[in-house]
Amino acid sequence: xxxxxxxDVRVHYEVxxxxxPLVLQHGFGDSSTSWFEYGYVDVLSRSYRIILIxxxxxxxxxxPHDPSSYGxxxxxxVIAVLDDIGIEHCNFYGYALGGWIGLVLAKLWPKRFAxxxxxxxxxxxxxxxxxxxxxxxxxxxxxxxAFTEIWEAQAIISPELRGRLxxxxxxxxxxxxxxxVRNPVYLEDALPxxxxxxLLIFGELDAxxxxxxxxxxxxxxxAGSVVTLPDINHLEAFQRSDLVLSHLVPFLETANAPxxxxxx
Length: 264
Prior knowledge:
single chain, 8 strands
């Protein structure tokens, strides 16, 4: 399982499977291990070369405590990994913070991607309710156990996931969140200008992203599509891989069909 240095920050990644390359990017406070736990790797690695990246501040990657170490560096780390492997053009699926990373990639490195799927993250500026943002700030300051409560309030989590959440470097997570709040990146133009297929996936009950904002945004899109999963909240829209894969797999098949791609 290799590492690459992006500047002075070590980024850990893993590659498995065979086929067109597909990056899977985890969410805030999580790690690439969850892609295995929830069955994504088992299904997708049958048809794709899966690249799993632990975002800086997470998992087995370095965890700087300086907020300036994060922001769009989280996205440029993906490019550093692709360059290290020698992949010029690939597919991308990110959830939550991983979805935000996908939006930044779509904006800053659009020609590197055959398709981009964004789950549980909105390109609409400041769409997260203030109360939700304030609650996350409070829980991060309160420590790992309080942060884990956010997850447990949404769904049943496994002892393994709970252990990973409790082992987080909370100073690093707070630094990531601080930078995201203080230095927002304008992303509403990321997908409309992307020269590749794209898909957004949300749980219909996602309290972080009001569906009215998402539907208003999606009505302005001339390409791509938005899928809402009924009766599903933010965390469940990742955990329920059966529902997600029912949309993700056919989307990727279409995006990677010979008529849709001119890249090897």
